[in-house]
Each structure stands twice: as structure tokens, then as C-alpha cells.
Write a structure and sequence with these properties.
It is a single chain. This protein has 431 residues and is of the alpha/beta class. The chain folds into 2 domains: 300 residues, Rossmann fold; 112 residues. The chain is 54% helix and 13% strand. The protein has a 7-stranded parallel β-sheet with strand order 3-2-1-4-5-6-11, with helices on both faces. The chain is elongated and about 85 Å long. This is NADH-ubiquinone oxidoreductase. GO terms for molecular function: protein-containing complex binding.
């Protein structure tokens, strides 16, 4: 079959594509940035497009032409500079369904979410439900799959946060540790999609994908810690106010383009519990969904998983430290311009040139210190930090080489800062 997968490089979408390729299908993936995906999945034909801008059936017709089935694995957690929930979850789905009906697409698999409800005050769940309604109201052979907490070898968003909390040194911090959760393996979600597009499931089916029994968030975190091979630790309940504060900070950095799983939508979902009807799947399929223990056993953790878990919470600290260091450096240089220029002038540099160097250097420090906090500008800012630091070192070596022997080590101390920039570059990617 020819199958289109929306959000094909996401946590679920990538697993779905892998399964469909193994099934022998011809797969086309769609997403906003498909460069990396094309290198990782060269067997897939990739289309670069932003779903939030495909809001009419005519926009989708060239995309779905010739397709036998469509799988919608795209989604967003919360509105932000790069995400518009209503457009992605509802508007584009309404247009896509109309295009599929016109183009004669046979089957449509919609990846929804546990908790999707038109009456939900959470925009994530209400817009998801609106998209589901558009699919269910169509003439297509549709399947709506509502997975619980999806566990996969890949990790970002909420699953990355779980690993990071589980790897916390000494104890495991958790807000609302008693909330019930039902997980599902991403391989089981891909299996369900495979059966849906093949027509092996009853048509016009909306079904939950969750393990048989619910467990507390605390138990999930302890399972992840054991999976990482780390010493046992106690789960330490955190005050609810700390969770609310974290969500306020996460929503703020979301405006800057960072997709934190601690945003208010995620915490609201956790407060309601992540549970569904486990029996509904068993009633239509002879392939039982595996519990969390089996899911983790199928993807054994190694050193790279422990590295990731430990570095994940360090990442915001790294970027905050870099921003603070460069901003303070630039501001102090501006405020104490004469004293900074005197350091260069005392070593034979002309006064005018020294003042120009201080002004330009301080302004550059402030610009990159602010830019590194904005996700679209983070990589250019980090590269600029490297260039500026190397320029400082080269200029100082050329004009005032004695600074290398200064007892306070102003040049020597730039080397660790440069190394931290390299670490930030290494951990910049979110997915």
C-alpha cells in the first residue's frame, strides 16, 4: 500500500514508519523539518510542509493523491511560536479528511490521546477531540487510537522528563506521585496502526491503547530508575506549588521556542491521571498490549541512556549559566568601560582602540547572551560565542600576550567557558 504518515519523525510517527516499512508498504512522511528524517529514513519519500498552514482540502489534495491510507501521528502539546493547537489538531484535520474523501483514500488512522474530550478545559484535549470528531464524521474507513503514556527507545518531552527524574541523584523528586498512569509500548501503537491500515481491525473503531493495570507515577519512576541500572532511591513528593511554579517557568520559556514537558497543559493532564479502558483492545485483537515491565525489558538501557537521563536536567542549567555569564560580562564591560579599556591601554594598546574593543566586545557579549535563550537563535548564538571567544584569545595573544601569565587568569579561564559552549551545542537537539 501507499501510506502517508503525518508527523513521521516524531516519537510515535517514526516507530509507525519503521513498522510500515517492515510490512512492505511504500511510505511517505510529512513534517516541517525533514532533513534529518531523510537521512535517517532514506527509504521514505519525505514532504516538507507545515500542517498548521494546510487548512483547505485543496492544500491537501496534491499530498494525498494516490495514497491508499493516511496515518495522522502529528500533534503539539501547547500553543507557542512553533505550534498552534487549533490549526494542527482541528483545522488541518478537517481539511485533510475532506481531501481524503475527494481523493478516494481508503483508510485513515488517527493517533489521538487518552483524555481527548470536547468539553475538556485543556486546549490540548479539546482540540484533539475536535480532530477526532472530524475523522469519525467522515465516510472513510477510520480508526482512532488513543494511547496512554507512550514508552519508546527514543525520548523527549514527558518521557525524557521521566528518565531525568528517575536518574536524579540521591532521591527521585515527583509532583503528584500518586496519580494513576497506564503506559503503552510504542511498538504496540505501531502494531495497532499496522492492523488498522491493513483492515485487520473493525472499521470505524475508536479505542484506547493502555496496559492492563494502572500504576502510580511513583511506581513508573522507580521502574525507570531500575531500568537505568541506578541504585535504589526514595520517591520524594514535591509540593504542588513547586509544580505550578515550574509550569509558569516552562510556559515562559515556551514563548521563547523551547518545548518543555513541564508546561501547564502537561501538568493538567497528569492531575487528571493517564488511564483508559484496557479491555477494549483485547476484545478486538488477539495481540495483548504489554505492561511497562515488558516494554522496558524489550529496550535494555546502556551507558547512553544514563548519559541522556543525567544531562537532560542539566541542559537548562547549562544554557542559563552561559546566558548569565555572557550578559553579565557584557553589562559589566559597558558600565566599567574606562577601567576595561585601561587594562588594554596599560599594555600598550592605544586608548581609542581600547575603547572601541571594549564597546564592541561588550555589545557582542550582551547580544549572544540574550540570543542563546531564544530557541531559533540558540545554535547561531553558541557558534558566535565560540567565534568571539577565539577572537578574544587571538587578539589578546597578539596584542597583550602577558595576559596569559596574569595571576587572575583572565585568558586561561575562558577555556572552561568555551568547553561549556561545546557541551551546549552537543545537547541542543530536542529530538
Amino acid at each position: 500500500m501507499k501510506i502517508l504518515v503525518l508527523g513521521g519523525y516524531g516519537l510515535i510517527g517514526d516507530a509507525v514508519i519503521g513498522r510500515l516499512l517492515r510490512d512492505g508498504h511504500q511510505v511517505t512522511g510529512l513534517g516541517r523539518e525533514v532533513g534529518d528524517a531523510g537521512r535517517r529514513r532514506p527509504a521514505v519519500r519525505w514532504i516538507a510542509a507545515d500542517m498548521s498552514k494546510l487548512l483547505a482540502a485543496e492544500d491537501w489534495l496534491p499530498v494525498v493523491a494516490g495514497m491508499d491510507a493516511v496515518v495522522n501521528a502529528a500533534g503539539a502539546l501547547q500553543d507557542g511560536p512553533r505550534d498552534r493547537l487549533d490549526a494542527v489538531h482541528r483545522g488541518s484535520v478537517v481539511a485533510l479528511v475532506a481531501a481524503c474523501e475527494q481523493a478516494g483514500v481508503h483508510r485513515f488512522a488517527q493517533i489521538s490521546a487518552i483524555g481527548a474530550d470536547l468539553a475538556s478545559p485543556n486546549p490540548f484535549f479539546s482540540t484533539k477531540a475536535q480532530g477526532d470528531k472530524a475523522v469519525a464524521s467522515s465516510s472513510l474507513e477510520w480508526t482512532i487510537l488513543r494511547p496512554g503514556l507512550v514508552i519508546a527507545p527514543a525520548a523527549y518531552g514527558g518521557t525524557a522528563l521521566l528518565r531525568a527524574l528517575a536518574a536524579f541523584p540521591g532521591f527521585i523528586p515527583a509532583v503528584m506521585p500518586r496519580q494513576p498512569i497506564q503506559t503503552v509500548s510504542v511498538a504496540d501503537v505501531a502494531e495497532a496502526v499496522s492492523r488498522a491500515v491493513a483492515g485487520s481491525l473493525p472499521p470505524r473503531l475508536a479505542i484506547d491503547l493502555v496496559e492492563g493495570n494502572a500504576r502510580s507515577l511513583s511506581d513508573v519512576l522507580l521502574s525507570f530508575r531500575a531500568w537505568l541500572g541506578l541504585p535504589q532511591a526514595r520517591v520524594m513528593p514535591m509540593p504542588a506549588i513547586l509544580g505550578r511554579f515550574a509550569s509558569v517557568v516552562a510556559d515562559a520559556v515556551g514563548v521563547l521556542g523551547w518545548r518543555s514537558p513541564l508546561r501547564s497543559s502537561a501538568l493538567a493532564a497528569l492531575a487528571d491521571g493517564i488511564t483508559g479502558n484496557a479491555r477494549s483492545w483485547n476484545a478486538v485483537c488477539d495481540h495483548p498490549l504489554q505492561p511497562l515491565e515488558a516494554t522496558l525489558a524489550d529496550m535494555p538501557a546502556h551507558a547512553q541512556e544514563r548519559w541522556f537521563a543525567r544531562l537532560w536536567l542539566a541542559k537548562p542549567v547549562i544554557f542559563a549559566c552561559l546566558s548569565l555569564f555572557w550578559l553579565v560580562s557584557g553589562i559589566v564591560g559597558m558600565i566599567r568601560q574606562d577601567q576595561a579599556a585601561d587594562i588594554l591601554a596599560s599594555r600598550g594598546v592605544s586608548v581609542d582602540f581600547a575603547h572601541i574593543c571594549v564597546l564592541v566586545g561588550s555589545a557582542a557579549d550582551i547580544v549572544v547572551g540574550a540570543a542563546v535563550l531564544v530557541r531559533p537563535f540558540a545554535k547561531p548564538a553558541l557558534l558566535a560565542m565560540i567565534a568571539i571567544t577565539l577572537s578574544y584569545l587571538a587578539g589578546a595573544t597578539l596584542f597583550v600576550p602577558s595576559l596569559w601569565l596574569d595571576p587572575l587568569g583572565p585568558l586561561v579561564k575562558t577555556i572552561p567557558g568555551l568547553c561549556l559552549v561545546l557541551v551546549a551545542l552537543a545537547v541542543l537537539d530536542e529530538r
